[in-house]
Amino acid sequence: MARACSVLFLLASSLAVSARSWYQPRGHPVHELFNRQNVGGGVADIGSAAWTAQYPADLATASVPAAWKAAYTNAVNAGLIPNIPVTTLGTDGLAKYPEGFDALSPTVCASAQECRINGSIPQIWDATPGYAGISFDDGPVDLPTASDLYAFLKENHQPSTHFLIGSNILANPDSFKQLVQDPQQELACHTWTHPVMTTQTDDQVLLELGWTLKIIHDSTGGRVPRLWRPPTGDSDMRVCAIAYHVFGLTTVIWNYDSNDWQIGAPDATGTYTDESVTASLTGWLNGPKTPGLLMLEHELNNHTVGCFKDTYSLHKANNWISTTVSDAIAAPSWYQNSLNNTAPVAALDVAAPAPSTVPSPHTLAVTTSTTPPASAPSAATTKGSSKNASNGVSDVGPLAMISSTALLGALLCSVAFW
Ligand SMILES: *[C@@H]1O[C@H](CO)[C@@H](O)[C@H](O)[C@H]1NC(C)=O
Ligand SMILES: *[C@@H]1O[C@H](CO)[C@@H](O)[C@H](O)[C@H]1NC(C)=O
Ligand SMILES: *[C@@H]1O[C@H](CO)[C@@H](O)[C@H](O)[C@H]1NC(C)=O
Ligand SMILES: *[C@@H]1O[C@H](CO)[C@@H](O)[C@H](O)[C@H]1NC(C)=O
Ligand SMILES: [Zn+2]
Fold it and tell me: Which range is the signal sequence, renumbered to this chain (predicted)?
């Protein structure tokens, strides 16, 4: 994950301005950025009718926005999206490939069967030694239940990562609002409807990821998450390639599964109790520091949250550096276009090329415009993006893509994955 980057760039004097450039004007106090959605200026308040109306009520009847489709088509044409068939779910609940496709081969590499992608696309299983990346999947749930966790995290000044379900954001805006108001919480993507992703067609993958990124982007002053986690840990080379080459997303799995969601669940596949899950978490938190911890936990209900709270003191007792997943895996930032929830944001539309570098306060004043996604060169077609796509380390990934209409200049950058 080493990232050595030295970037020198000059901005074109005439920047293309998007009709939707509602980002902070020059000189606007940075600390207000994260609450931009409540300031007006063309962005609907979370939970308002206007906000809700922007998102599909039913993904099954939604069509893929043209800009996302264009970015995808460019990636396909550049040979970046492997042509692997969708899986079907067996009676055991496991995704199965058709004859001739080996789930464990490097070309398919099914994460649900523990195949780890080697280099060509970013996929994370472990945290940095000594770090515990705290994460919660499946939120936001309804407010009384969600408040319990969010208040606990805030009280303890504890940064963590939330792999959010887009349709849950839409259904529980008050919970989402509370989450967004704690600047220590990293927002990441867990799909819109929580399907087993390898069963989904390419178009469905675009919808699941794109809309979830979009609702987070629209509600947080334009931040585009860097991380996504596939539901049930199910992904493969095709799904991860779409996530990365179309949306710039790094796939995050885990190295310990608490199975906390199974406590009292009607569809549980094993016997798990508050005590058994707490015992597992205790063992891992008292265990070795290498690799660092990425424990799968959920913000689903009082059982899952209770197990987290009951073992929380062990983070400190064992001297873990317990933080967001991005920080625990040494990613350069929480969002593709911003260091975190309070730092400046570079204008970026979902599925548009990411900026060449994460904005620092010094670049804020000159990164207040964006290029409309439909006309922006996609990551896949920008010169240099595909040439090293399959040799282990892509030296120019979506993060390093520059919109040619927005930037001119010299770029000296060596980026591994990020
Ligand atoms: C990736 O590399 C590891 C270690 O070299 C190996 O065990 C694994 O099978 C490889 N996976 C693929 C898909 O090639
Ligand atoms: C979970 O706990 C919170 C705080 O104790 C409580 O307000 C809420 O009703 C509980 N939720 C459920 C579903 O039991
Ligand atoms: C967010 O980034 C800013 C730098 O722009 C830094 O000062 C601040 O401490 C960071 N906040 C968190 C929660 O990491
Ligand atoms: C691909 O990567 C290798 C090693 O990182 C580099 O030497 C080579 O120039 C790259 N190829 C192209 C076409 O840029
Ligand atoms: Zn989930």
Answer: 1-19
